[in-house]
Structure formats: structure tokens, C-alpha cells
Amino acid sequence: MSRAIAVIGGTGPAGTGLALRWARAGETIIIGSRDAARAGQTAEAIRRRAGTNAQISGMENSAACAATDLLMLTVPFEGQAALLKQLKPTIRPGSVLIDATVPLAASVGGRASRTIGVWQGSAAQQTAELVPKGVSVVAAFHNVSADILNGDDDVDCDVIVCSDDPNATQVAMELAVKIPRVRAIDGGKLENARIVEQLTALLIGLNIRHKGHGGIRITGLPEAAYKIGSDR
Amino acid sequence: MSRAIAVIGGTGPAGTGLALRWARAGETIIIGSRDAARAGQTAEAIRRRAGTNAQISGMENSAACAATDLLMLTVPFEGQAALLKQLKPTIRPGSVLIDATVPLAASVGGRASRTIGVWQGSAAQQTAELVPKGVSVVAAFHNVSADILNGDDDVDCDVIVCSDDPNATQVAMELAVKIPRVRAIDGGKLENARIVEQLTALLIGLNIRHKGHGGIRITGLPEAAYKIGSDR
To answer: Are B113 and B201 in contact (CB under 8 A)?
Structure first.
């Protein structure tokens, strides 16, 4: 990417994991957090793991939004809507916002292996309703284990990317294949995010039941359906 | 299995595909259909492909139910509830009923890449409400491509099995691994079927978009989580 990636809510496990992998791939990363100091500490911790040449800094979430036009949203569902309302004035027109939010029932005190219903159909569609006009929302990265992302192993998972904007889909697919062994698949319209989000709850249930770090692979599609990284 | 498998709605593509694979594995199969003559024709067609030693016959659906205590339900969602109400008196107490129904929006004139909401949470939970007391419902085989099942290639797909009865889960898992290369995974309670069912709509969308026969593999679980066939 020629532009920096702001990971909003970037101090949580999913955010730090994605930031680590993208920093290792040479991307410029801005960790966003409610607390600028905490964002800076997380950025430093990631730099120590990604190497001294890693281009990574930390900012308060709105400053991170204002600093680039490529946003990766990794916040728990219970914080998603309020945060987006707060950030709305700072999100640049024309931005691509990648949303990995999963409406887990844990958000309202329930189980992480269950979901709650979102009026718009999915967390990503809720996001699409809350961002300024002209911002493209992409749903992706729900099913990649945060624990695996934060480690050093290759990631045995496909990333299904859903968006109503084909250009935004391409951006997210390019970012996905910067993670070693990840394949990206165009999952069609943003509305399909509802199934990809649910799948995370199923994987969490499997992880609890079988003590693993579940991911998914889609089989049976022609080769052209899978985008793979340049290292493959 | 020591007992025959009645494939209810067994003249459709999913039913014939499963019957073909199980007949090849030496199982005794009863094809069930509204029309006994049609069931018989389908059974003969499967026998021609599975080999003359295949143990397969055809019966009207209620006769098929009455003939065994292992039922595989492969009907379109729009026919599911009415058929179960009709079959209820003929389903034997203690039966295991495996449900592969997916509540596709196509059932009500919509798209096969979308689903409709089922009050009980999933088609399988609707089934559980409609069968006689003491019948164990298992949800499984939703994500296996009917086209692939009806062919000769190995099946590159995991079967996630959900049930509130661990014994019924075992029965379905054993049947799953009789299909070459299929792995079976215990997906926990029957309520989790709602996600496994949705996944089929996602796969159908991917098949349309990418012209394939999509399936899924779950990665990242410990070896013990995967049941595999004896030929592996």
C-alpha cells in the first residue's frame, strides 16, 4: 500500500496481530486508541517484534483517522457504534474502512460462541450506516485467529472479503495476502458479511470445545477465485 | 452402520449424492420419496453407479421411516415442516434423524445465496420441534456440494455436526467419514446449526460468483477434533 493503515482500536488482540503482520510486510501502520499514550506503547511493542525498520506509530483514534484514508476497525461490537459516531467528523472522504467486528453475544454479557441480531443485518452494515457518505466499507478478517496473528507461524486461514465497492474489496484483498499463507476470496456484497461474522462465533465455539485456534479454508473454487501473496 | 439409512427426500441432488457415497461404502440405503415408483427408479440409478452389490431400495417416505431408525432428511426447506408433520406417526421412537436442511431464501422466491429467518433459530431446531419425543435430531451435511457428492471425486470438505445428543452426533460423524476425504467435527449443540446452515448460503454465493463447487475446511484444531475415515 502507498498509504498508511490506521488500525482503530489497535491495542486489542486482533488489532495488534494485524498490525504486527502488516508491519513485518513493510506497511506503514498507525495504531489508534482512545489513549494516545497507550497507542504509542503498543506501537513500540509491535516495533520490537517486527524489527527496528518497522514503520509504526501510535495516535489517539481520531488523529489516526485524520492521518490516512485506509482504516482497519478492530473494536468489540459493544463499542463500535459509539466510536464511529465520535470519529465521523475525522474520517476522510474517499476512505476505505475495513471492518472486522463480530456481534458476539459476549457484547451483552452472553457467550462468545453466540451472536446477537443486528438490525442492519451485520456489524459491517451497521458501520456502513454510520460512516460519512463516500466512505467505502469492507468486511474482512473476522475469521483469522488473533492468537495466531500475534504469533510467528503462518496463518492457515482464508479471508472472505465483502463490500459493495469492488475497489475497496481489492484493497482489503491485497492487505489480506500480505499475511503469510492467507488467501483472499471476494465474498461479494457487504450484506454477505452477516454470514462471515457468524462464522467467527462458530469458530470460537469450536475453539472452546476442542481447545484450538480455528480458521477456515474454502475449497472447491477455481484457482482464479483465490488471491495469494507474492511469496507463494 | 448395522442399520439401514432412510434418505427422506432422497430423489433430490443432495439425497442421491449421499446415498451414492454410502451405498459405495457398503451401507444399506432406503431412498424415500413421495412417490414410491420414483424412489425405486432413483434407487436403481444409484445401484447402477454404486455396483450391483449395492444394498439400496426405494419406498414411499413414510414406509422408509417405518423401516429403520436412522433417517437422513434432505428436502428443500419449503417442504420440511409439512413433511415432518405428515411423517411424525411413522418415525420410530429412539430414531436418529440427521437434518441437512438450509432455509434458503429461494424457498420463498428469493435468492439461494440468502437465507430466511426461522423462528426456532435454524431449520434443524424446527425439525427438533416437529419430531416425536425421544427422537434425536442432528444437523450435518449442509456444506457438502451435491454436485461433488454425485460425482466420483473425493470430497474436499469437513462436515460439522451439531446435536444435543452426543450419541446421535457420533452416528452422524461415523456416516460422514464414510465419504472419501470428508472429516467430521463435533460442532456442539443443535443450536449451532444456525451458523452451519447459513454457511451453505455463503458457499452458494461463492459458487455463483466464482463458478465453483465450494466446501469448507476448518483449520487450527488439534488432531483429536477431526474424525477421519478408516481409509486415511
So the answer is: yes
